[in-house]
Amino acid sequence: MIPGPLEYYRPTRWDEARQVFQQLIQAGRTPRYALGGTELITMARTSQLSFSDVIDLKRIPEVMTQDQDGDWITWGAGLPLGRIAALDRWPVLTATVDRVADHTSREHITLGGNGFSLLPYKEAMLPFMLVDHAEATLATGAGLVTGRLPDYFDGTWRVASEDFLVSLRVRESEVRNMRFRSFKLTRLDWIDYPLVTIVAVRHPTGEIRAAFAGWGSAPLVSAEVNRVLSDTSRSPGARAAAAIGAMPVKPLDDVHGSAAYRAFVTEYTLARMIGELEASS
Amino acid sequence: MTSVGVNVPRKEAPNKVTGRARYTRDLCQPGTLYGLLVPAHVAHARIRAVETSAAKGLDGVKAVITGDDVSFLTGDVIEDHPPLARGKVRYWGEPIALVVARDAATAQRAANLVRLHCDPLPVVNSVAEALSEHAPLVHDEVGSYTIATPPAAPRRHSNIADEANVTKGDCDQALRESDVVVTVHVSLPQIDHAAMEPRVATAEILADGRVLVVSSSQAPFEVQKLLAQYFHLHPGQIEVTAPLVGGAFGGKATVQLEILAYLASRAVGGHVVTLANSREVDMATSPVGMGLEADVVLGAASDGRLKAARLTFYLDIGAYADSAPRIARAIAAQCTGPYRVDHLHADVYAVYTNHTYTTAFRGFGHMPMTFAIERAMDELARKLGQDPLDLRQLNALAPGDLSPTKARLTSSNLGNLPETIQRLKPLIGWTGGAPYAVAPHRVRVQGVAAFWKTSSSPPNATSGAIVTMNADGSVNLSIGAVEFGAGTKTAAAQILAEALRIPVSRVFIRDEVSTATAPEHWKTVASLSTYMVGRAVLDAAQDVVRQLKSLAAVVLRCAPEDLDYGNETVFVRDDPTIQLKYADLALGYQYPEGDSIGGQIIGRGRFMIRHLNLLDQETGHGRPGPAWTVGVQAVEVEYDTETHQYQILKAATVLDAGRVINPAMAHGQVRGGMAMGLGIASREQIRYGPQGEFLSNQFRTYKVLRMGEQPDTYLVEFVTNPQVDAPFGARPLGEHGVLAIGAALANALSRASGLALNALPLTPEFIWQQRRTMA
């Protein structure tokens, strides 16, 4: 139950959505864009979040894209994670989104909703943080703008509040046959928030790259960590230990697990991942 | 026997599986107002004011009441509990106000406008803090409270709400003479009942003074009694209805929301008000299960025979006493586990903290108590190099022994633990408890633990049954026990069907209990319903048979003693062709000429527990229940010695059921107990922040075992040594699946890891921390 009086908008064009948002802001209201709505509903129910208006983006065609156009594979921000997994266009993305929340929730939680979640995890973004050619399309005052993902997102979004994510895309030629491992480590349960979710790939360049959710307050990749992980002169165990030392931020310490335990599970998981990524196939 | 000992589907099953079963919240009346509790977000504070003016001003708000409006104290044993915080806040989540509004959304908006002005006080955030010198006091003077139901022994000017002691022999001397002594400190967190249905109560005060309460309660007669007491009403004015309850586990045996719903209704002129807990409120505001800190010292001879036990239990009861004094005495009475210990000293303390208050939890204190004893028993087996099952068998209590409180044990009231142990070995494929490698870094191991439990019920607990016959000879059965998933109603119907020699399908039984129409049943708790209700039902069946025979004797012109019954007929013993159908007698007998005699067959039956007494406050001696149920449990786990992750492969229980009324239901009940116990042992934990913040008030942070995380295999077997005074010999088994399975898991993982894992929950992080502490 959302306790407040609430107005609901369902625009069918991206520019209309922005316009409504701006008008509501000017009227002194507190609108929110919505895709799956799971976080808005659950946080409003407990009064952790309040808003006066919801602008539902799921009737905007560009937001619901599920295209493969030439070399680009595109996912609309409004696609539920369950749908993305069922499409299975990019195995590492499939494996990662398939471990978010539970089955019922994944039919509602969307790519954009997970990416803009108020929780620290945003696991669906991890695979996109590992490739050279990930791009984001945003609805902005200057139209639909497509640019390199790192220009907008490095764990935290740099997007104006009235703008919104329309879609993400990667190049098939880059991600085809990319070896990967995607592991979600929890306190104990299969269904739980991650202590840490680690997505690691062996990039065509030969480099091992890893992205982490749950380690810190935002998802992260680190060039230094990737350099350490890729140093084939050292054993997987030694590289994993060194990677822990090279992490750019301290691990979270919360009800799911202590900082030291997060480091412990991350280390043994990284060692296993490196071993598996480098094993001859 | 055709109805007892067979698998009869539950009476309420068709409605449950099709979603047609009605629970309290499904019974909506037009015009119902919505109540909502406003929880405090501070754990310990002196209240300056609860500001409600903004909430009261909101359109659609009918009333906002606070502790200022309610001056009486409540409490089953010790009257220490204001229904709404008054003067002080004593736990995070304690209700500081109650909003009544025309709809749930308005109530929530109003609740968000209530402001608490208070002066925070130092927080008592653990048992250790509560007992430390100069500890802040949760209750300024616990000695001033009224003891509503003795015994209880609050210690003046302290955080000790109550203590119970048991002494036998010379413990110190026997420990000195022991060849082996083990010492274990056990630490268990508070846990939530986590019933699927959060608690809910609806109240209405009619113009004629009658009070109608509908509640998801295990104890509708207790609700009636306490409302009458607190609000100075006649019990008969109050009608409490308990529909089907969606899981209870002891958490719905206490009275909380019913009092608040009555206050809410009274504040709006008697209008019907419903008060339904959200999951968050159900966890933080309504009572939870107690935590435990325990010190166990066991002394044994070199052959493993126990000589002495010194036991100290500190219960984290939270902010209010509720049932804690009763639970403390239950722990004291069974404190040794099912083992013979001639020299014993046990102290049980119920300790106030600024945590959520606690109440009964499946097992009534025996689950945490058993964990402490069974961890110590396993450490003793390790120290002696003895098979842990052999050690338990060697020390098992036997007929002729005395319980810790010197109750005399017989084969009827005790059951046979050695037989369950012998049966467990082939069932689980007992390996002796030594870990063995199955892959690099992976070991398998089995762990075991035994239990016993009796009812710890008050000595005047009563039950009843009323049977009315329908025109076709079928019967309606009315009992006061609530159905919350344990199959109580079905078992009662089976017992009646057996006694009347009719099919179970010919027994009709209502889902709900109403105090206005059902005979009194103490509370649906303590695994006692089959015993108490069953005895009352048998008594009622006898009454029905007597009435059938005496009416048939007149019609058939013979003595009642000449008659027998079966197949829904009453017949002459030596010539069964001379007979009358139940249907011919059900509403009186009508002669062919048209004149009639008799009247409806209405059987009544009743039962009262006998020969129980309260434990003596000095010596702790007494008889705490009619009989004990004993059993043994085991788990097999596969454990990763590097990551400390583990899988539970098998979980097994063998218990002495006396006689099984309904095998499928009994298996399900025991399996459910194991699932619950494994969830509690492996992951469940209420976490408090540094200032007593309740951090686990959702299933996002309070994890229970999900279907996919269950063991691969559950094994359940029963041995059957009858309890002679129970219906068909059946022993209680409702709670028991939960009692020792957590200890068995801890014993298995301790053996696998080589550590002494004496705290719960057994998360991989906890095992890893223990390993680091060792290293």
Cα end-to-end separation of chain B: 62 Å
Mean pLDDT of chain B: 96
Number of helices of chain B: 19
Structural class category of chain A: alpha+beta
Helix content of chain A: 25-40%
Explain what this protein looks like in three dimensions:
The complex is a heterodimer of chains A (281) and B (775). With 281 residues, chain A is α+β, with helices and mostly antiparallel strands. Chain A contains 10 helices and 12 strands. In chain A, strands 4-5-8-6-7 form a 5-stranded antiparallel beta sheet. A 4-stranded antiparallel beta sheet of chain A has the order 9-10-11-12, with helices on both faces. Chain A has a 3-stranded parallel beta sheet with strand order 1-3-2, covered by helices on one side. Chain A starts with 6 loop residues before the first strand and ends with a helix. Chain B is of the alpha+beta class and 775 residues long. Chain B has 3 domains: 31-123 and 194-284, Alpha-Beta Complex (Aldehyde Oxidoreductase, domain 3), CATH 3.90.1170.50; 291-457 and 613-774, Aldehyde oxidase/xanthine dehydrogenase, molybdopterin binding domain (Aldehyde Oxidoreductase, domain 4, 2-Layer Sandwich), CATH 3.30.365; 462-608, Aldehyde oxidase/xanthine dehydrogenase, molybdopterin binding domain (Aldehyde Oxidoreductase, domain 4), CATH 3.30.365. Helix content of chain B is 26%, strand content 26%. In chain B, α10 (366-384) runs parallel beside α18 and α14 (488-500) runs parallel beside α15 (529-556). The A-B interface holds A 1-4, 45-47, 187-193, 255-258, 261, 264-265, 268 and B 104-106, 108-109, 112, 278, 280, 642-643, 682-683, 687, 695-696, 700-701, 703, 706, 708-709, 763-765, 768-769.
Name the descriptors:
heterodimer, A: 281 residues, alpha+beta, five-stranded antiparallel beta sheet, 31% helix, B: 775 residues, Aldehyde Oxidoreductase, domain 3, Aldehyde Oxidoreductase, domain 4, 3 domains, eight-stranded mixed beta sheet, 19 helices, 26% helix
